[in-house]
Amino acid sequence: MKYSFPAVFEQDQTDKNFINVTFPDLMGVVTCGQGMEDARFMAKDVLKSMLAFDYVKNTVATSLEKTAQNFKGKIVEMVEVEV
């Protein structure tokens, strides 16, 4: 089954090499990566981990458009995983 949630990607304020990733629909689910490619990989990894524990399976994801409106000026992408 496929799951997808919007994620917000932000450059870390103290170390510009790192990108912080948050999932607004999933309280407490955060990760980071060194650069965008690594941040995207880590976002999928943390989402897959949360699904393994049934943490997010019953959560309804907000649309990408709505999330982008709520986080103007930030990079917002859907993260999709299959479990």
Describe the structure in your own words.
This protein has a single domain, classed as Double Stranded RNA Binding Domain (2-Layer Sandwich). It is built from 2 helices and 4 strands. Strands 3-2-1-4 form a 4-stranded antiparallel sheet, sandwiched between helices. The longest helix is centred in the middle third of the chain and has 17 residues. The chain is globular and about 35 Å long. The mean pLDDT is 93.
Layout of secondary structure:
Blueprint: E1 2-11, E2 18-22, E3 30-34, H1 36-52, H2 64-70, E4 75-82
Antiparallel strand pairs: 1-2, 1-4, 2-3
Report strand %: 25-35%
CATH architecture: 2-Layer Sandwich
How large is the count of helical segments?
2
Major sheet description: 4 strands, antiparallel
| Topology-level CATH name | Double Stranded RNA Binding Domain
CATH class label = Alpha Beta
- Helical percentage: 25-40%
Domain module tally? 1
Low-confidence stretches: none
- What shape does the CA trace take? globular
Q: State the order of secondary-structure elements, H for helix, E for strand.
A: EEEHHE
Q: Write out the strand line-up for the largest beta sheet, numbering strands in chain order.
A: 3-2-1-4
Coarse structural class: alpha+beta
Q: What is the residue-averaged pLDDT?
A: 93
End-to-end Cα distance: 6 Å
